[in-house]
Amino acid sequence: MAKLTIVQAVADALRTEMERDERVVVLGEDVGVNGGVFRATEGLYERFGEKRVIDTPLAESGIVGTAIGMAIYGLRPVAEIQFEGFMAPAFDQIVNHAARIRTRSRGRFSCPLVIRAPWGGGIRAPEHHSDSPEAWFIHQPGLKVVIPSTPYDTKGLLIAAIRDPDPVIFFEPKRIYRAFRQEVPEEAYTVPIGRARTVREGRDVAIFTWGAMVRIVEEAAEELAGRGIECEIVDLRTLSPVDVEAIVAAVQKTGRALVVHEAPKTAGFGAEIVALINERALLYLEAPVYRVAGFDTPMPLFHLEDYYLPNKDRVIRGVERVLSF
Question: Residue 303's pLDDT is what?
Fold first, then answer.
């Protein structure tokens, strides 16, 4: 079994599905001859040709609009937006068209479309290259939102997204694109959309997180374990639809909860998790749920990036705050 990085798992998933299903096409800026800005589509142009790996002009709305038409008429397009911050120009196409095709047509049409984008901070990139806009899309009914944190999950979730009958926003944490390797099966497999993963069992506090923050939380949990504090870590993997049962079960088990994400705190998805816990598991809580998040500012330039992003020490202080209530 090969050991792949996350970005290699993306390429492997695309190749696997393009070999299995000739309806799968890839389109975006520089995805063809150049193999993508992060090399996530490297080798696909040579393997499948210009009719299935399509270089587009620098026009995000046009990329997504074209992909929507492809999807409605029977293809399985995977559109790449080079950085998450550039999804805003395609926002109209995503929320007013892709997300609404099924309900607008009363179920006569669906839109089996995947929109991939490198996501989040941590690589010292300039403005519009380090954002965490997942809450924009979670709020829109009709979209699924997926953010993996391991190579295994990346391949399985991306294949599941390509096979899904409705549009999926697939955010890839670029900070950990090449941070580590993991054994990934060569054959096709799926990881179910909508299911969380328990990364670490614990009895004292449940920590809910996703994307690159999973590794940060694991570092904090390891240090806290040395003090006798056992954290349960839940990688949500899919934010829409979120795994409600997994969240409730972890709160029932530990009685305390923390949410960690790198998006701005106000109206971030952490707030929705807090509300969900209040609705479904309030009587199990021994302390208010606390959030460790990015700040309510645009992602700063690189010399302040480490200050903006949650780190191990901020997570530890969050756990201490929840436990000391």
Answer: 86
3-state secondary structure of 262: strand
Angstrom distance (rounded) from CA 243 to CA 276 = 11
Confirm whether pTM is higher than 0.85. Answer: yes
Of the candidate ranges 20-34, 216-230, 292-306, the one whose mean pLDDT is the lowest: 292-306
Verify whether residue 129 is a known catalytic residue. yes
The DSSP annotation for 74-135 comes to: T-EEEEE-SSGGGGGGGHHHHHHTGGGHHHHTTTS-----EEEEEESS-S---TTSS---HH
Task: Indicate which residue of 129, 139, 261, 303 is catalytic.
Answer: 129
Question: Whole-angstrom Cα distance, residue 254 to residue 240?
Answer: 24
- Are residues 215 and 179 in contact, defined by beta-carbon separation less than 8 angstroms? yes
How far, in Å, CA of 270 to CA of 290, rounded?
9
- How many Å apart are CA 17 and CA 10, to the nearest integer? 11
